[in-house]
Amino acid sequence: YDEQQNLKPAWKYVTDVVRYWISEFHLDGIRFDAAKQMDNYDILRELDNVAHSVRTSQPFYTAAEYVPEEPSILKTNGGPVDACWSSSFHGVLINNLTDLSKLELDLMKYVISAPDLVNYLSCHDNERFLFLLGKQGNAFDDNAFIRMRLAMIILITSVGIPFIAQGDEFGEAREWGDKDQNKKKFPMQWDLLNNERNRSLVDTCKKLLLLRKQREDMKEKTANFIYEHHDNRVLVYARSQELVIITHFSNEEKKDYEINNFPQNGKWIDWLSNEEYQIDNNTLKANLKPFDGKILVLQK
């Protein structure tokens, strides 16, 4: 604190920077890095107040990187920011899609249901998710893409805020490496879209984002886990009484697999494939492909 000027010079400088970026470039959100290294949250609270004061007529979102995620930093818990960066989501998903000797159901349920966390598959702090599927899980080509599709389904249908690193949506898989990362250039590989499986992944992402945008139940901060089977590597969760997500973490196909405890009987349709299913006695019977993911919507 500068007593002669009656201000905190560092605070003034940082708040001026935030004001400039938001007013000049019309940002609708800002991410604060390395919050764990801060002595207290006072400056974060001030920056959040400043950011929202600049964008009074439009929504604004603040997020803080805190590794591992810290719930106390969230406004819902009395903290200074709207959301917290979640490194756990990436770690739990890559572990359960590459190590088929285990299924961490409790951790999966945590990352799927935790609200106000920014979830991601890839970011600047780790290699591309598709690259890691090959490196850690020896999964390549179609085997890798079906796992990537399942990961995208979970990312977009989880309760938290989905973050997609540019390129993940169409299957970027180049290794970034540990040396001179900041000096490397990685132009977008648009020619990947000449491949059918890359285009298919993009189409899946488009449908998932449309689901997230159109359905009100995707805005709710709840996920109800209605079925799980550790040995069969199946986890099913409902975002509402009319929207159910089925995840299958196995490379083995399952024929006429029964999933009970469905919220409602009637005709359901897969949002991604348009396949129709009839639910009777609150039980679904369906074929599960390797690393399958289904998003079933009740038809009225």
TrEMBL record:
Example of a GO MF term: cation binding
Stored InterPro entries: A-amylase/branching_C (IPR006048), GH (IPR017853), GH13_cat_dom (IPR006047), Glyco_hydro_b (IPR013780)
Occurrences of domain Glycosyl hydrolase family 13 catalytic (ranges): 106-186
Pfam families in the cross-refs: Alpha-amylase, Alpha-amylase_C
Gene3D superfamilies the record matches: Glycosidases, Golgi alpha-mannosidase II
Gene Ontology annotations of biological process type: carbohydrate metabolic process
Stretches assigned to the Alpha-amylase/branching enzyme C-terminal all beta domain: 229-280
PANTHER family for the chain: ALPHA-AMYLASE FAMILY MEMBER
Official protein name in the record: Alpha-amylase
The species this protein was found in: Adineta steineri
